[in-house]
Design goal:
500 residues, alpha/beta, 2 domains, two-stranded antiparallel ribbon, 9 strands, transmembrane helix, membrane, transmembrane, Glycosyltransferase RgtA/B/C/D-like domain-containing protein
C-alpha cells in the first residue's frame, strides 16, 4: 500500500517541471540565461558583452552538462531536463541510501517528496540540488562498500569526491560530513580499531585535500569573499523550509511534521540507531555554527536542513502499533506533500504567461543594448511579504539571449560561474545582486543621490539604454527621462532618454 502511494505521489511531484517551460524558481531564469551564453559561445549568435572563462573551481554541474545536452535539444529543454535529473537524483538517492542501510524502503521516499520543493530548491539553487542528489548516491555506494575491499571503497570515494567538487562545493561538504560522522560512530561502538578508523577517515579526506591543493596551485577559487552570520534567522528557517512561496503553508506543514515526529519518538515508535544519533547531533551543530553567508554564497545554513531530512530516514526506524496508525501516518505525510505541491503549481502555472510576456517585450529592445533592472520594492531584498513575486527577480536576464543584451545582475561571480562581462561593461556589472530600488534610481537622476551610492549605477541614465522596473505597474517616476514601451502585471519596460 505504502509503495503504491509513494509511486503515485512521485508521479505527480514531477508534474510542475514537466508542465512549465521555465519553472518559476527565483534563480532559474538567471541560470537559463547563462546556459544560453555558454551554449552559443564561439558561434555567430554569441552575446557580444560576455566571454567564457573556465577555471578550476566548483559549482559547475549545470554549466558543464547543459551545453552538451543542448547539442541535441534546445537550451531551454536541456536546462529543464537538468532540473528534472536533479529531482530524480534526490528521490532515487534517498531511496537507495535507505535500502542500503536497512534493506527496505520505508521513510526516505516520503521525506524526499516532502522536501522536493523546499525553500532552497524552489528558489532555484539547482547546482546544489543536483550535487545533493549526487551526494546521496555517493553516501549509499560508500556504505554499500563499507565492509568490502578498501581499494574499491577508496576508488568509489575518489570518483564521488571529484564529481561533487565539480557539481557543488557545499554538497561535497555534506558528503564528507555524513561519512565522517558515520565512521566516528563506529569508533564509539568499538566496531573498528582506532588505527583502522583513522585510516578510513584519512582515505575519505585525501581526495578532497588533493583537489583543494590543485585549486590553490591553479589559482582556482570557491567563490568570493564574504562571511556573515544572521543568527536571528536560525530559529526561523526550520519553520520556513518546507515551502518557498507561502510562509503560512511552510509553517503549518513544518510544524505538523515536527510535532508528529516528536510524538512518535516520545512513544518509542520512531528510533534513531547509533549512527543516526551521531548524524542528527552533527547536523544540528553544523546548522548552528555554519555562517548564513559563506564564500559569498547566501543561505548556506538553511541548506543543511533538507540535507539532514534526506539522509536521516536511512538511519531510523518507524514501528507503528497497528494498521490504523499506519494509515493515519500515510495520510498525514501525503497531505503535506500534496499541499506543498498544490502551492507550487498555483505559482508555476500562472508564471508561464508572465515569462512569455517578458520574453515578448525583448522584441522592443535594440539588439546589443544595455538593460538595467529596478524594483518597486523598498529595499531591493527578497519580498518576504509576497514570495510569489520573487521568481520575476531575474527574468530580465533572459534579454542576454533574446536581445543579445547586457544585463548587470546576470550571475558572473568569480569562483562560481565561468561567464564574465567583457572589459567594456565590467565596471557597471553586478556580480551577484538583485534589482536596484527604483527610488534610488530616481534620486540619482534628479541629482539627489545618497552618499553611499554604488558605483555601477552612479551614471545609470548614461550607461544603460533600457530599464525594467519589476513589481506592480506604477506612475512613471521620471517622465522626462523614461519612455514607457511595455506594461505588464509584473513589470514595466522603459526606454532611457539620455541627456545630450
Amino acid at each position: 500500500m505504502a509503495i503504491a502511494v509513494l509511486a503515485m505521489l512521485a508521479a505527480v511531484s514531477f508534474l510542475p517541471v514537466l508542465l512549465t517551460p521555465i519553472p518559476a524558481m527565483v534563480d532559474y531564469p538567471n541560470h537559463l540565461a547563462r546556459m544560453y551564453i555558454l551554449s552559443q559561445s564561439g558561434t555567430p549568435d554569441a552575446n557580444p558583452h560576455y566571454e567564457v572563462a573556465w577555471a578550476f573551481y566548483p559549482n559547475l554541474g549545470m554549466d558543464l552538462l547543459v551545453p552538451q545536452m543542448a547539442r541535441l535539444i534546445s537550451v531551454e529543454s536541456a536546462t529543464r531536463l537538468f532540473l528534472l535529473l536533479s529531482q530524480l537524483l534526490i528521490v532515487s538517492g534517498a531511496l537507495l541510501l535507505e535500502w542500503v542501510r536497512k534493506g527496505r524502503v520505508q521513510l526516505a521516499g516520503f521525506a524526499a517528496l516532502a522536501f522536493l520543493y523546499c525553500l532552497p530548491f524552489s528558489w532555484g539553487f539547482v547546482n546544489f540540488e543536483f550535487g545533493l542528489g549526487l551526494a546521496l548516491w555517493g553516501i549509499a555506494v560508500y556504505l554499500m562498500l563499507a565492509e568490502g575491499p578498501w581499494p574499491l571503497r577508496f576508488a568509489a570515494n575518489l570518483i564521488f569526491v571529484a564529481a561533487l567538487y565539480v557539481a557543488h562545493f557545499f554538497s561535497l561538504g555534506i558528503y564528507g560530513a555524513t561519512l565522517g560522522l558515520f565512521e566516528l560512530s563506529h569508533i564509539r561502538q568499538r566496531q573498528v580499531a582506532y588505527s583502522v578508523a583513522a585510516a578510513r577517515l584519512g582515505a575519505l579526506a585525501l581526495p578532497a585535500l588533493a583537489l583543494f591543493a590543485i585549486m590553490h596551485v591553479t589559482a582556482g577559487s570557491v567563490g568570493s569573499e564574504g562571511t556573515s552570520w544572521f543568527l536571528g534567522f536560525k530559529p526561523v528557517w526550520p519553520l520556513r523550509i518546507m515551502n518557498g512561496y507561502n510562509l503560512t503553508t511552510a509553517a503549518a506543514t513544518g510544524l505538523a511534521l515536527t510535532i508528529a515526529l516528536l510524538l512518535a519518538a516520545r512513544r518509542g515508535a520512531l528510533r534513531l540507531d547509533t549512527a543516526g544519533i551521531w548524524l542528527a547531533v552533527g547536523f544540528t551543530l553544523l546548522y548552528l555554527v555554519i555562517p548564513s553567508k559563506l564564500f559569498g554564497t547566501s543561505f548556506v545554513d538553511l541548506r543543511v536542513i533538507p540535507a539532514a531530512a534526506l539522509i536521516l530516514p536511512a538511519f531510523c526506524s518507524l514501528s507503528l502499533p497497528n494498521r490504523a496508525w499506519r494509515m493515519a501516518a500515510l495520510a498525514g505525510i501525503s497531505g503535506i506533500i500534496l499541499l506543498n505541491l498544490a502551492v507550487v503549481l498555483s505559482v508555476w502555472l500562472p508564471y508561464r504567461a508572465d515569462y512569455a510576456s517578458i520574453i515578448a517585450s525583448f522584441q522592443k529592445i535594440d539588439r546589443g543594448s544595455r538593460v538595467l533592472v529596478g524594483s518597486t520594492d523598498d529595499n531591493g531584498d527578497p519580498p518576504f511579504a509576497d514570495l510569489t513575486s520573487y521568481p520575476m527577480y531575474y527574468a530580465p536576464t533572459l534579454a542576454v539571449h533574446y536581445a543579445g543584451a547586457f544585463v548587470p545582475n546576470l550571475f558572473t561571480e568569480v569562483g562560481k560561474q565561468p561567464v564574465r562581462p567583457r572589459e567594456a561593461v565590467r565596471k557597471i556589472s553586478i556580480p551577484y545582486g538583485g534589482p536596484v530600488q527604483s527610488g534610488l534610481l530616481a534620486a540619482i537622476a534628479t541629482g539627489q543621490p545618497p552618499a553611499d551610492i554604488p558605483p555601477f549605477i552612479r551614471t545609470w541614465s548614461q550607461d544603460f539604454d533600457y530599464l525594467y522596473v519589476l513589481g506592480s505597474p506604477a506612475a512613471n517616476p521620471l517622465p522626462d527621462r523614461l519612455e514607457v514601451l511595455e506594461t505588464s502585471a509584473r513589470f514595466v519596460l522603459y526606454r532611457i532618454r539620455r541627456k545630450s
